[in-house]
Every structure is written in structure tokens, then in C-alpha cells.
Amino acid sequence: MRTGRLAMAVLVIASACTAPNPDFMMQTPCQAGLRQCVMTPRGNYPVVCGLHERGELTLLAERCPSSAACQAGLCVPPADAPSCTRQRDCRTGQVCVPLVAAEGRMLSGFCIPAGTGSAAPGQRCETDENCQTHLCLPFRNGNYCLRACRADQDCDIPDECRELNITVTGVAGRIRSCLPASR
Q: How many other C-beta atoms are found inside a 10 Å radius of the C-beta of residue 175?
């Protein structure tokens, strides 16, 4: 009789656990390089199957701006996001960031709402989360938040518009950003 009650209690408790558990998803087996989107109460975000720090194959969460969409494991722009090549192409409260263009799986600039980070485009940063542009770029004398540009005239003096190689959710490309002048 006791065993029956215990089994019934376990069954009731197990059936009550219906909320999504993203930590469980991170432990599921996968095929290396596989990309997908995982839905959580906080939104849809990209994951990729890769090696965990312990050397185990698992799904790893990747960073994506909160206003970006996730499609096939890639950070793509929201449907209404205008394209941009420099920060001044965007309205006040928006930032020009590289995301994966649905057509051709290439990186392109899109205007999206600025992130909650305290560092404005072109300012020093430590992590991507510090930047309103969602991207902290390493440079020879420190890290700087992305400030999209086409030419030196788009930057504050004495900064220069420099080309950099980056990867966004597995798609490599080149962007231009204002960075300190090389003197």
C-alpha cells in the first residue's frame, strides 16, 4: 500500500512539471554544428550544437539582440527593420547592428532598438551587454562598442572607420566601425 501511494505521489509531481526548462535543452544530445531556435518564457533564442567546456557535445546558447528574431538558429532582423550601413542611418533610439539577412545568409546592417547597456556606440566596453549596439569589439588599445560607419566622416575626430571581420551566429562577414586612429 505504501509503495502504491509513493508511486502515485511521484506520478502527480512529475505530471505537474510542464514548464519549459532551457537548462534541460542544453543537455540534450545533438549533431555538431546543428543550429536551431529554442523558445523560453523570455523569448526565442539561437543555440548551436558544440563542445561544452567539459568536452561534451551539447546545445550552446548564442547571444542575439533582444529585438532580433531567431530563424533556423540565426539572428535575423525583425520584419520591419530598415537596413543601414552607418549609425546615422537609424532613428533616435535605434542602433545599426549586423544581423543575418534572410536572403543569402550574409551579414547586413539593420536598425533595431538600442539595448539597455550604458555604453553608446563608439564608447569603451567590457562585454557585449555593456553596449547599446549589442556588440563590444576588441581593438589593440581596448574594447569599443560598434559604431557603424561607411567612411571616416561618419566618426568623431580623431577616430577612423575601420573594417573588421566578425561572426554572428555562425555567419562570418565584414563590418565597418569607428575606432581610435592608428597613430
A: 22
Q: What is the pLDDT of residue 58?
A: 87
AA letter at 17: C
Helix, strand, coil in percent for the chain, rounding step 5: 15, 40, 45
Please check the confidence at residue 21 and state whether its pLDDT lies above 70: no
Judging by DSSP bridges, how do beta strands 35-40 and 43-51 pair with one another? antiparallel
Task: Please say whether the dihedral angle defined by the alpha carbons of residues 22, 25, 31 and 36, taken in this order, is positive or negative.
Answer: negative
Going by C-alpha positions, the residue among 102, 92, 97, 108 that lies closest to residue 146 is 97
- Nearest partner of 73 among 105, 41, 27, 117, judged by Cα: 105
CA distance 91 to 64: 21
pLDDT band at 29 (very low <50, low <70, confident <90, very high): low
Cβ 158 vs Cβ 122: under 8 Å = no
More confident position, 67 or 153: 153
Per-residue buried b or exposed e for 17-47, using 16+ beta carbons within 10 Å of the residue's own CB: eeeeeeeebeeeebeeeebebbeeeeeebbb
Q: Which amino acid is at 141?
A: N
Q: In the 3-class helix/strand/coil scheme, how is 103-168 assigned residue by residue? A: CCCEEEEEEEECCCCCECCCCECCCHHHECCCCEEEECCEEEECCECCCHHHCCCCCEEEEEEEEE
At 7 the three-state DSSP class reads: helix
